[in-house]
Write a structure and sequence with these properties.
This protein is mostly helical. The chain has a single domain (33-318), classed as Na+/H+ antiporter like fold, CATH 1.20.1530. The protein is 76% helix and 0% strand. It has helices spanning 2-23, 36-54, 67-92, 98-108, 115-123, 128-156, 163-188, 199-221, 223-227, 230-256, 261-270, 276-286, 293-322.
């Protein structure tokens, strides 16, 4: 049990953060003594400062010239996945609560993961340098592309969003800390010693705090009393549908482009994945005024553990296949 908790503590923490929000919503809700209007923004800035500190840009050169892999991953992240989201929304969206529809569309336009994509690709013997490059580029593009996509999707639904003020806030709370982290990396990274391995854990704890604050507002506003547990079931089922479809399309596209085995592995662990670590802070900034933020976050919160479970299984399958005698 200890070993399992050590490996899956973040998923347990997500459940704990949501449970705590239902049991004790007042501190993390708007106007609470945790001052979430300020503390969540500070947490977002710190997340991206630490991401910039941990990001080894000098390692990107190794994967620079695998252009077919890069085209596949970025096209899937910011074109195929959003179009799939729009198609599913056109067919099934009218049966869902409005906030949950928005949550699935938000999931579709998020960047890929960083650490998970690289670790899984490396463990499976794939092109880890290519995975690193694509995950990094995807997350940098996400600061601009994700809110633009959200603005387009809202306009298509007859709603409006002021994109320019949002872009300025994203630049201040995401881009500037990311650049500052890169600048500080050359001075501090080697001096941090054992703390370097804790950066991911610190970021995960900050994400849990933002999730807690988001659900506190939704609980206080009565969203879950109004809708019950049906949105959670829909979010879980929808996450499975999204993941299966995008995995299938990734495999097909990799074969059509005739990617070498190492690049196919990198594509498999980059193209279908969506980041919770960056997605939660982005959602907090983009939908800050929406009391149903908890509902909007449900799809990505179900998608995250699903991609971890399937990714871990695929690593073992690919390693076994690679070591099979020919």
């Amino acid at each position: 049990m200890k070993a399992w908790l050590a490996k899956n503590w973040f998923i347990v923490g997500l459940l704990g953060a949501v449970g705590l929000a239902f049991a004790l919503p007042a501190p993390g809700a708007r106007g609470g003594w945790l001052y979430p209007e300020v503390s969540t923004k500070l947490a977002i800035a710190l997340i991206f400062l630490l991401q910039g500190l941990a990001l080894a840009l000098d390692s990107l050169r190794e994967g620079l010239f695998r252009w077919r892999l890069h085209v596949l991953v970025q096209a899937f992240t910011y074109l195929v996945f959003p179009l799939l989201g729009l198609a599913l929304d056109a067919v099934l969206g009218r049966f869902l609560p409005a906030e949950l529809r928005l949550g699935f569309l938000f999931l579709a336009v998020l960047p890929t993961t960083v650490s998970t994509a690289i670790v899984f690709t490396s463990l499976a013997g794939g092109n880890a340098a290519g995975a690193l490059l694509n995950a990094t580029v995807s997350n940098m593009l996400g600061v601009i592309v994700t809110p633009l996509w959200v603005g387009i999707l809202l306009e298509a639904r007859g709603e409006s969003m002021s994109v320019l003020p949002l872009m300025r806030e994203l630049a201040v709370l995401i881009l500037l800390p990311l650049v500052a982290g890169q600048i500080l990396r050359s001075m501090l990274w080697k001096r941090l010693g054992n703390l370097r391995g804790r950066v991911g854990q610190i970021n995960s704890c900050l994400v849990l705090f933002i999730v807690y604050a988001a659900f506190c507002n939704s609980v206080q506003s009565g969203i879950f009393v109004e809708h019950g547990w049906i949105p959670a079931l829909i979010a879980g089922g929808g996450a499975v549908v999204f993941f299966v479809l995008i995995m299938f399309l990734t495999v097909v596209a990799s074969r059509v482009l005739r990617l070498p085995p190492g690049d196919r592995t990198a594509a498999l662990f980059c193209a279908p994945q969506k980041t919770l670590a960056s997605g939660v802070p982005m959602a907090k900034l983009i939908f800050a005024a929406n009391p149903a933020l908890g509902l909007i976050l449900l799809p990505v919160m179900f998608y995250h553990p699903l991609q971890l479970l399937v990714g871990g299984f695929l690593v073992n399958v690919i390693k076994a296949r690679n070591h099979r005698p020919h």
